[in-house]
User: Which sequence fits this backbone?
Protein backbone atom coordinates (compact mmCIF):
# COMPACT_ATOMS: atom_id res chain seq x y z
CA UNK A 1 0.00 0.00 0.00
CA UNK A 2 1.67 3.24 -1.05
CA UNK A 3 -0.20 5.31 1.55
CA UNK A 4 1.89 3.74 4.31
CA UNK A 5 5.20 4.57 2.69
CA UNK A 6 6.31 7.93 4.20
CA UNK A 7 9.41 8.19 2.06
CA UNK A 8 8.10 10.41 -0.78
CA UNK A 9 5.99 12.70 1.42
CA UNK A 10 7.99 13.04 4.60
CA UNK A 11 10.45 15.55 3.16
CA UNK A 12 7.60 17.56 1.68
CA UNK A 13 5.85 17.68 5.04
CA UNK A 14 9.03 18.75 6.83
CA UNK A 15 9.80 21.48 4.32
CA UNK A 16 6.28 22.84 4.47
CA UNK A 17 6.34 22.98 8.28
CA UNK A 18 9.74 24.66 8.32
CA UNK A 19 8.50 27.18 5.79
CA UNK A 20 5.45 27.89 7.87
CA UNK A 21 7.35 28.08 11.15
CA UNK A 22 10.31 30.14 10.01
CA UNK A 23 8.93 32.40 7.29
CA UNK A 24 5.16 32.74 7.30
CA UNK A 25 4.38 32.61 11.02
CA UNK A 26 6.63 35.54 12.11
CA UNK A 27 5.18 37.68 9.34
CA UNK A 28 1.65 36.91 10.45
CA UNK A 29 2.40 37.50 14.11
CA UNK A 30 3.86 40.93 13.41
CA UNK A 31 0.44 42.33 12.55
CA UNK A 32 -1.42 44.02 15.33
CA UNK A 33 -5.14 43.44 15.68
CA UNK A 34 -7.33 46.42 14.95
CA UNK A 35 -9.92 45.66 17.61
CA UNK A 36 -8.27 44.90 20.88
CA UNK A 37 -10.58 43.03 23.26
CA UNK A 38 -9.20 44.88 26.29
CA UNK A 39 -10.63 48.19 25.04
CA UNK A 40 -14.17 46.91 24.85
CA UNK A 41 -16.66 47.81 27.53
CA UNK A 42 -19.07 45.25 28.82
CA UNK A 43 -22.69 45.96 28.05
CA UNK A 44 -25.56 44.15 29.63
CA UNK A 45 -28.64 43.51 27.62
CA UNK A 46 -32.05 43.42 29.20
CA UNK A 47 -34.03 40.42 28.17
CA UNK A 48 -37.76 40.15 28.49
CA UNK A 49 -39.43 36.78 28.89
CA UNK A 50 -41.59 35.49 26.13
CA UNK A 51 -45.26 35.42 27.00
CA UNK A 52 -46.74 32.19 25.74
CA UNK A 53 -50.47 32.33 25.03
CA UNK A 54 -51.19 28.87 26.47
CA UNK A 55 -49.65 29.40 29.92
Assistant:
Amino acid sequence: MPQLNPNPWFLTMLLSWFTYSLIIQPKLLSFTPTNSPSNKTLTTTKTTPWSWPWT
User: Anything to note?
Assistant: The chain has a mean pLDDT of 79. The chain has one helix and no strands. Helices lie at 7-29.
